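User: My collaborator sent over this chain with a note saying "see what the structure looks like." That's all I know about it. Can you take a look?
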Amino acid sequence: MRSLPIVILVLCGAVCLARPPQTRPRATRGFKNVALSTARGFGKRDGLQLQQPRLKAEWLANELTNNPQLAGMFVRRFLDVDSDGFISPNELLATPH
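Assistant: Without extra context I'll predict from the sequence alone. Here is the result:
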């Protein structure tokens, strides 16, 4: 009966010596903090791509004058709001969306 604690102690010591020593702490998986929780450089949009393109008024006027198909598409898209084929005074005076 007195030898049982000694046997348990010897077995625990043998188990501890049988394990390989750890040279570095175990790395935890996952993100360390919120600042590292987003991917960087993987096709995400930056602020420059989200800006609306701007055209010069002179260039647009010249294109609408020289290209009747573009002028028709422009009128249908931006002026003929109710798509009835006619431009009413209300449609001309409406604020652009």
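A starting point for your reply to your collaborator: Helices lie at 3-18, 57-66, 68-78, 89-93.
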